[in-house]
Design brief:
heterodimer, A: 265 residues, alpha/beta, six-stranded mixed β-sheet, four-stranded antiparallel β-sheet, 8 helices, globular, B: 261 residues, mainly alpha, MetI-like fold, 79% helix
């Protein structure tokens, strides 16, 4: 069985006993298997249930039908082995960057119990991560002193500090300008080859999906379901140059075509 | 003169201007001192009755602070509870608004029936007036935590306690301090009202006795003392606010957010 397995999942938003018209079918008969260490992207128009899929995997919502299993176990409550990052950096404004990154260690076991005694080691760990994403020397800054792109880098560090086996990214670069975004693609690719955790990236940027992922799933809206799955066979490490190669462009073009089809239904 | 030092002396200038205007009105319209005493007469009254004003002022200050501290403790607890649970919010908040709409002066006679005249009604009235702004502000801070942040915390397996201490309370501090600055001034209003209606001592009692003797300069002297105590307490909380919630003011030299009472 795959590391993460969604089988025939339905999710309905709205009160369970309210009228049918007040309910929305956010995800319908979604099935997905994700291998250990896979980098997977989910693309689709806004409101197609992409983010809901992430919440299902994280155990933040429970499906109305079907099952979600991670590592062979049914997900019934929020997983603790997950890192999350969103479009808003959601850094705590009263903590400096390093203490923001260290937040998960104050909550997740086993770090929590030893956090007080091994403070120095944890700080070094945070510095290593900050260094990896290009924030060397920014640990003492406050979040508002950082640009949007730098805040996203810090958020990635916070999502990874407790060494989660799954990293869930919900349009993390959507609010950034193109150049910053392309910079962060390469940062994320490096992080993945360094950590080898399972990454699920939700995005509406097709180039981003093809640049980063091994597998791209296309979703369509109302009801949200998976239309198509494409493997990306472009060799790594991928660079900005790769995005101009015919194989890359063709794949983006093909995905775009399927999103267009999904909308017509 | 640069803007920084101008900003520093601006409040003193404004106060001086108000006193000048007051004095000008009294002189220009020839107002009698039993109607409106001049600033000088008020100052003379403060000096003449300094001992009584000090003793009764201290009594008012104590009643106010006791009521206020109780309001801070209960306000914080109720605010956190109401702000973190939607059910409690919808259950309790309308009740709180209703209670807050009751004129507090009307409660004083009830407190007197229950506890007798004296300090207890003053403490309770101070509590009643200063309680609500604290609850409302803390509750708002807790209720408006970004949903993504809650998701991050939940996905880490954070307990309610973690969320309250790591996110809720630090995040609510600027709101909390803003409410303290409103509440402390309201607490003075509460205790003085209660002392006027049913006090054996305190500044309110001084005002009542002075007014019935047509000693209007003393009434004004007492008002000035209450005003000064209010400003003093406000300044203390403002000082702590600036030190503890520096992060909520971006950059330096920015305008400090503060909602005055």
């Amino acid at each position: 069985m795959a590391f993460i397995q969604l089988t025939d999942v339905d999710l309905v938003y709205g009160a369970p006993n309210s009228q049918k018209s007040a309910q929305t079918l956010a995800v319908s008969s979604a099935s997905l298997s994700i291998e250990h260490g896979e980098f997977l992207a989910i693309v689709g128009p806004s409101g197609c249930g992409k983010s809901t899929l992430l919440k299902l995997i994280a155990g933040l919502v429970r499906p109305n039908r079907g099952s979600v299993t991670v590592d062979g176990k049914e997900v019934t409550q929020p997983l603790k082995t997950v890192g999350m990052a969103f479009q808003n950096a959601t850094l705590l404004p009263w903590r400096n960057v390093r203490d923001n990154v260290l937040l998960p260690l104050e909550i997740v076991e086993p770090y929590r119990s030893r956090h007080r005694t091994e403070r120095e080691k944890d700080r070094e760990h945070a510095e290593v991560l900050l260094d990896k994403v290009g924030l060397h020397g920014f640990g003492d800054r406050m979040p508002w002193q950082l640009s949007g792109g730098m805040q996203q880098r810090a958020q990635l560090c916070r999502a990874l500090i407790h060494e989660p086996s799954i990293l869930l990214l919900d349009e993390p670069f959507a609010a950034l300008d193109t150049f910053t975004r392309e910079d962060l693609w390469s940062v994320l690719q490096d992080l993945w080859s360094f950590r080898k955790c399972t990454i699920i990236l939700v995005t509406h940027e097709l180039r981003e999906a093809v640049y980063l992922a091994q597998t791209v799933h296309v979703m369509c809206s109302r009801p949200g379901r998976i239309l198509k799955t494409s493997a990306v066979d472009i060799p790594r490490p991928r660079t900005l140059e790769s995005t101009f190669e015919p194989a890359f462009v063709d794949l983006v073009h093909d995905l775009r075509h399927h999103i267009g089809l999904g909308k017509k239904h | 003169m640069n803007t920084k030092s101008l900003e520093r002396i601006a409040p003193w200038l404004a106060a001086a201007l108000l006193i000048a205007l007051w004095w000008l009105c009294v002189r220009l319209f020839g107002i009698k001192s039993y109607v409106l005493p001049s600033p000088l007469e008020t100052m003379q009254a403060i000096y003449k009755y300094r001992y009584a004003l000090f003793v009764h002022g201290a009594s008012t200050l104590v009643s106010t602070l006791v009521g206020f501290v109780a309001a801070v403790v209960f306000g914080m607890i109720i605010g956190i509870l109401v702000g973190s649970s939607r059910l409690l919010y919808s259950a309790i908040y309308p009740l709180l608004v209703g209670l807050n709409s009751v004129p507090k002066a009307a409660l004083v006679p009830i407190f007197v029936i229950w506890f007798g005249a004296g300090t207890v009604p003053a403490v309770l009235t101070a509590f009643m007036l200063s309680f609500f702004p604290i609850v409302a502000n803390v509750a708002i801070a807790f209720a408006t935590i970004e949903p993504e942040l809650l998701e991050v915390m939940r996905s880490l397996g954070a307990s309610r306690r973690d969320m309250t201490f790591k996110i809720g309370i630090p995040r609510s501090l600027p709101y909390f301090f803003a409410s303290l600055k409103i509440s402390i001034t309201l607490a003075f209003v509460g205790s003085v009202i209660a002392e006027i209606v049913a006090g054996n001592d305190g500044i309110g009692n001084v005002m009542l006795v002075a007014a019935s003797n047509f000693n209007v300069p003393l009434v004004f002297a007492a008002l000035v003392v209450v005003g000064l105590m209010g400003v003093g307490m406000y300044a203390i909380f403002d000082f702590f606010d600036r030190r503890m919630t520096k992060w909520s003011v971006r950059g330096d030299g920015g305008l400090q957010q503060s909602i005055g009472g």
